[in-house]
Amino acid sequence: MHLALRSLPRSVIRAPRQMTATAAAPMASLAVLIALAGCATPGPAGLAPPASGPGGRNAIAAALHDGKPDAARKLLASALRAEPRNGYLHLLNGLTYQLADPSPQSAELAQVGYDAAVKFAPGYFWSHYYAGLAKFQQQDYSAAAEEFSWAILDRPDQPQAFAGLAAAAYYAGDLGVARLAAERAMALAPEDPAALRSVAYVAAASGDEGQVTQLTRKARSLSPKSGGLVADQSRLALLLRTAAAEGPAQRGGAQLTQAQPASGDAQPASSDAQPPAGVAQPPAGDTPSTASNLQQVMVEVTLLLSQTATTDTVGINLLDGLKLQFSGDNRTTRNHATGAADTFSRVITSALGVPQITYSLNLFNTHDDFYDVVVRPSLVASLGQQSEFFIGRNLSVSVSGINAGALQTIDVGTSVKLTPLEITAERTKFRVDTVRSFFVPTSSGTFAQSVTTFKQTVGATAEVEFGKTLILSGLYEAVNVGWTSKVPVLGDIPIGNLLFNERSKTQNRDAAIVLVTPRLTGTLDTDSHEFRAETLKRLLSLWKDVVEPLASTDALTETLRKKTLRHFRPQSGDLTLPAAADPATARLAIGDTLGRLR
């Protein structure tokens, strides 16, 4: 990738510094991807993994071509059991959900298939394209733009991905990337009214009134009956007025200049020039913001616990409850008196008794106990300082003594302790200790002057890159316990052995895993609409306007300008993308993907 970037023509992209935190990082590098895709050619198709078999492939293809997505999904589920790492099968499986039902619930299920397709078939055009559509529908525009960029790199001659990138960048606030992508889509499909409309909206949001006028004339010539962009004239006029009122620095658009062709006569960049937007710059350790970020780290800890106990009992043993009691009494008595005859007597008593017999006719019995816990605490710690997080209960237990008793406190819950040891710009080294404890349930009706708790402790020192997840520890324990009680001979008779043969099997499964993900600390802009509810917005507006009115005319004018212009910024109906269930696009995707299955 670095060798390819050196041969690119030099472009000057001047982007303002005020961009949203969620869109600025990924969007700034997309202009380079578009330029790379514009001068690239479609690469050869990669090696496709083998399908589950020719018969299964033909059945899947027949069901999809006949418009039976439900039947195709069953066949795909069977094929995925045989090939769970086949990304093309995952893509078709996700597509069947939206072909059968275009509801949001089906879209969520389809996105799981698209994400698996991106994972197991990376770089494939249709995997990234449909993943981008799913993220665009969820209004995750930065992630959608990234997926469309990968699709462009695979097939730079397809206008669908450029149109998707233009729409995602438009709503994310990066008008520079949106303009590049929209113009490229119109160049690939000059007769497409949707591509022309995208360029017009991006140009209007950028404040280019001349290009909007030119595009309006072109649209009228392409569609004289429909009138071209006549229905969009009022909206385009609002965008132009908003762009003129805000200015380039406030609307988030990038100033673009025509790229010079790559040649040996290219002028070298000035040493004083600023690098283009999207080019990674080395971290400046002496800047206050960077130095502050490198003094703190946030770690997200995920604890997954699962316990399952299953007991299966089959049959009973009737003779287990049959108990015989045998007792005997042997007494001898001799009477001896003077002048009288001796008397001798012996009494022997024997007894055989059967006590009460109680049987429980539970011939077939299954008992299941399960316990699942998902805990996701996160905390921030400074370099060399320990931070602690605990949530749970404090149990006070009485401890008896010789002279007097005492109360001892026991913490039952989740505890995380974090101590950063080293923090760099890319990774961090830290010590983390996690403790999870909970009460062990006891049988009902029992009483003891004590409680039983289950406790799991994990402590380790690790060095992890920011944003990467480390499996700190893992445990899987399986215990099988069984016993049998049967009567010889009678316990081996078919069917009848259920009365003289009792078998019990207990299976205990315990699983535990601890995941840690370090991140650099940051702040959230609470003025953005994502982090403030409507009620809180009204309260803050009341406070600023009534409780604490501003006497400054400039501040009042700025407040009115923001309230007026917020209605004219990009709205959800400006640019649209075809649905995932669009028949024409789905037909192309299905045919291409089936061709890669062998």
Overall, the morphology is elongated
Average pLDDT reading: 72
Number of domains: 5
The biggest sheet amounts to:
5 strands, antiparallel
Q: Tell me the β content.
A: 25-35%
Query: Helical stretch count?
Result: 19
Parts with pLDDT < 50 across at least 5 consecutive residues: 1-26, 35-52, 253-292
In helices, the fraction of residues equals: 25-40%
Q: What is the first-to-last residue Cα distance?
A: 31 Å
Q: Give the tally of β-strands.
A: 13
Radius of gyration: 38 Å
The structure class reads: alpha+beta
Please explain how this structure is put together.
It is a single chain. The protein is an alpha+beta fold and 598 residues long. It folds into five domains: 53-173 and 589-598, Serine Threonine Protein Phosphatase 5, Tetratricopeptide repeat (Alpha Horseshoe), CATH 1.25.40.10; 190-252, no CATH class; 297-313 and 362-520, no CATH class; 319-353, no CATH class; 529-565, no CATH class. The protein has helices spanning 2-6, 21-28, 30-38, 54-65, 69-82, 87-100, 104-120, 125-137, 141-154, 159-172, 175-188, 193-206, 209-222, 233-246, 248-251, 288-293, 534-547, 553-565, 583-596, and strands at residues 13-14, 255-256, 296-314, 325-335, 343-353, 364-375, 378-382, 387-399, 406-423, 427-439, 453-465, 470-486, 501-520. Helix 6 (87-100) runs antiparallel to helix 7 (104-120) and helix 7 runs antiparallel to helix 8. The two termini are 31 Å apart. Residues 1-26, 35-52 and 253-292 have low confidence and may be disordered.
